[in-house]
């Protein structure tokens, strides 16, 4: 890779607007993996794609639809942000393995095998019993590998995640989570998972979502960046990046949709009690896309050199995009 330095966010789910797209530009963010489905079926996901097409038509000087690593380079050169689609649930493929290729053709580049619950493919991190990757899950991983749809295990349980790392012929990602040695949370990942990702060329995107930070919204930048340094020691500096999980400008009712979807009539508070309802306050050093420079500064201050800092801020994601977004 050249000496260019890129900024890539491995996951956001904001209430998209011109203001946010402008903040991406102010923050020098070259690419963002955006969640375009939580619990939507195929047709509803297509409706979300229609909405994104509208954004691309409306704000062509700010954003465009990214499909390859070269689109990140194009975004950088033209002072825009490339938007990459992903799903936090396999619901867009419904129960039809043939939709995997269709979704990739429509521009999807990441798909979580679960969102907290058991799915047809694997076990989510909130289930009591983790039975691992299912029969269908293995078939779907093979198909995802074939077309270039990346396996994401951010909301998946331990055994399922380890099996996905082992079974997938191509590297997988945990696009937005942190290590549980630093902040215990159902969704944060074990040392075994970090090691597996590192050994297979996978990626871990570090999350700024307060429920996954040590000290929640009071987490210090220094603590966050020191955690990244500790992870670099465990899994290699080439296998880590940012996946902020930024959920900006949403009403609290959206958290309910994320957690409840269609599977329950009750409020699902996720990791904790009713006090976890609604969106938590972000740490003061990361409120929106303009704050990526704070993270970059924090990485330099805990001892990363400029090259490794550039890797974490986006260059590692770019290398991963180059290798894994096309058919094999």
Commentary on this structure:
With 328 residues, the protein is α/β, with parallel strands linked by helices. It has a single domain (8-324), classed as Metal-dependent hydrolases (TIM Barrel). Helices cover 39% and strands 12% of the residues. The protein is built from eleven helices and nine strands. Strands 1, 2, 3, 4, 5 and 6 form a six-stranded parallel beta sheet that branches. Strand 8 (203-206), helix 8 and strand 9 (240-242) form a beta-alpha-beta unit. Helix 8 (221-235) crosses helix 10 (292-301). The mean pLDDT is 94.
- Please identify the top-level CATH class: Alpha Beta
Radius of gyration: 18 Å
Per DSSP, what share of the residues sits in E-state strands of 2 or more residues? Answer: 5-15%
Order of helices and strands: EHEHEHEHEHEHEHEHEHHH
Give the N-terminus to C-terminus distance in angstroms.
Answer: 22 Å
Number of strands: 9
The biggest beta sheet reads: 6 strands, parallel
Q: Helix proportion of residues, in percent?
A: 25-40%
Shape: globular
């Amino acid at each position: 890779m050249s000496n260019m330095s890129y900024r890539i966010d491995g996951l956001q789910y904001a209430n998209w607007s011109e203001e946010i797209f402008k903040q991406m530009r102010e923050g020098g963010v070259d690419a963002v993996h955006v969640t375009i489905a939580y619990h939507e079926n195929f047709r509803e996901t297509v409706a979300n794609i229609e909405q994104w097409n509208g954004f691309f038509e409306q704000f062509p000087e700010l954003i465009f639809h990214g499909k390859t690593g070269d689109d990140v380079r194009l975004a950088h050169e033209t002072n825009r942000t490339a938007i990459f689609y992903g799903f936090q649930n396999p619901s867009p493929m419904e129960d039809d393995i043939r939709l995997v290729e269709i979704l990739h053709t429509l521009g999807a580049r990441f798909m979580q095998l679960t969102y907290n619950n058991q799915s047809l493919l694997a076990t989510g991190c909130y289930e009591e019993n983790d039975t691992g990757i299912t029969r269908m899950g293995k078939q779907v991983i093979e198909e995802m590998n074939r077309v270039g749809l990346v396996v994401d295990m951010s909301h998946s349980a331990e055994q399922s995640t380890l099996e996905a790392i082992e079974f997938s012929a191509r590297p997988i990602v945990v696009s937005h989570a942190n290590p549980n040695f630093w902040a215990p949370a159902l969704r944060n990942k074990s040392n075994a998972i970090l090691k597996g990702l590192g050994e297979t060329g996978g990626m871990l995107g570090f999350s700024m979502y307060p429920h996954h930070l040590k000290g929640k919204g009071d987490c210090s930048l220094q603590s966050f960046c020191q955690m990244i340094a500790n992870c670099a020691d465990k899994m290699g500096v080439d296998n880590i990046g940012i996946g902020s999980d930024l959920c900006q400008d949403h009403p609290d009712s959206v958290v309910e949709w994320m957690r409840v979807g269609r599977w329950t009539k009750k409020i699902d508070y996720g990791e904790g009690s009713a006090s976890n309802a609604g969106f938590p306050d972000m740490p003061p050093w990361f409120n929106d896309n303009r704050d990526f420079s704070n993270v970059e500064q924090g990485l330099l201050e805990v001892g990363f050199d400029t090259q490794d800092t550039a890797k974490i801020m986006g260059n590692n994601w770019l290398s991963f995009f180059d290798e894994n977004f096309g058919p094999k």
